[in-house]
Specification:
The structure is a homodimer. Chain A is of the alpha/beta class. The first copy, chain A, is built from 9 helices and 10 strands. Chain A is elongated and about 60 Å long. In chain A, strands 6-7-5-4-8-9-10 form a 7-stranded mixed sheet, sandwiched between helices. In chain A, helix 1 crosses helix 2 (32-39) and helix 2 packs across helix 3. Chain A has helices at 6-24, 32-39, 43-51, 65-76, 91-98, 100-104, 135-138, 154-166, 193-206, and strands at 29-30, 57-58, 62-64, 82-87, 107-113, 123-124, 127-130, 147-150, 171-174, 187-190. Chain A has 2 domains: 6-76, Arc Repressor Mutant, subunit A, CATH 1.10.10.10; 82-193, NAD(P)-binding Rossmann-like Domain (Rossmann fold, 3-Layer(aba) Sandwich). At the A-B interface, helix 1, helix 5, helix 6, strand 9 and strand 10 of A face helix 1, helix 5, helix 6, strand 9 and strand 10 of B. Chains A, B: One of its GO terms (cellular component) is cytoplasm.
């Protein structure tokens, strides 16, 4: 398989999300033009992105929604369950534990950690909270996870990341503003809500709608 | 100005974010290759995206960080302050009110609404909570805002969106999983954390790092 850029993977995830909506709505076929409109992309870009992985379209017909969705999930590795470990059970952490979309898409929290000793040992959203110092013990049991979700305060982020890495976890979804320093073989994805605001600012400023608008 | 696709605006916001980091680090010049690496994009894509707006690069030299940053901010409309109104002061809402990155990038919460009458009238992160029924009154005063941030429960999202639209607000950052139905002239940007997880799933599955990795 070719190496594809990050932004193409984010686009594939977006296409998969909209294909899933179409599938749930009982739609069997979609044109690249319609899929592009749903995703706020352009049809040529979609055809180019999908060409990384093979031929999914039928000329003059469009894409078979379910086939393309399954192919994308296989390519992206999302045709399986991924286990998440939460670090930082503050307001954001609690919100993340309660997000139904995670479970619906196969992302299951199996462990949660916090520094607050009043929280440790209690349950939040049915999840028992552990100390991050105990991570190596926790992941030996049912608390084992694939991806760390970092939602601590900024002051704790780098320390926590080092503990995660030392425990042998190779992927971090980073909600903190800290630029984490981790070894080359550890994957870090930074979440920044302000980036999503920019499409709105641009649309309001220019009057040109560049948001990902769902079709009505 | 040409109409540019949503995904290009998201990329511009990403470039601006990394240019801001370089600027804060005192870096004056950056090559498209280095900027691309920081953003997880490719240099040809960056040159193409920036070509929508004019000539910012100097052949053989690179980009002047501050000039490019200011030009991007002007293009995107982020060279000013934007006021945000929060709907739903639950765990996620509280976390959003406390995010320092918003204020640092010029996004200021000026109003917050919740349905919980025990919360209404109290202060959260220094912000007095109002009822969403009172939105038209609130925006006549210092609670006036440009962009609604929707962080209610899914069951309240559409009702709340209609109230926002009726009050004359034209932009919604939607953290709920609900596909909002709004008039054509209202901009909606949907935030979905699971999409960010997919770059990690892909990297873990293929061993090929497609995350937005910061340079070390």
């Amino acid at each position: 398989m070719h190496k594809i850029p990050n932004i193409a993977v984010i686009r594939l995830a977006l296409y998969a999300k909209h294909l899933e909506m179409l599938h749930n709505d009982g739609v069997e076929l979609v044109s690249s033009v319609k899929l592009a409109k749903m995703c706020g992309a352009n049809p040529a870009q979609i055809r180019k992105d999908l060409a990384y992985f093979g031929q999914f379209g039928v000329r003059g017909v469009g894409y078979y929604v379910n086939d393309l969705l399954n192919a994308l999930k296989e390519v992206m590795g999302t045709n399986r369950t991924w286990r998440l470990g939460l670090f930082g059970v503050g307001n954001l952490g609690k919100a993340l534990l309660g997000f139904e979309q995670f479970a619906q898409r196969g992302f299951i929290f199996t462990a949660a950690f916090d520094k607050d000793i009043d929280l440790v040992g209690t349950e939040v959203q049915g999840m028992e909270i552990s100390q991050s110092e105990d991570i190596k013990e926790v992941i030996k049991g049912p608390g084992c996870f694939d991806i760390a979700v970092l939602a601590t305060g900024a002051d704790r982020a780098q320390d926590c990341a080092m503990r995660i890495v030392e425990a042998g976890i190779h992927a971090i979804l980073n909600f903190t503003p800290v630029r984490l320093v981790v070894p080359e073989n550890v994957f870090v994805e930074n979440v920044d809500f302000t980036v999503r605001l920019h499409a709105l600012c641009y649309s309001l400023t220019t009057g040109s709608d560049v948001t990902q608008r769902h079709p009505r």
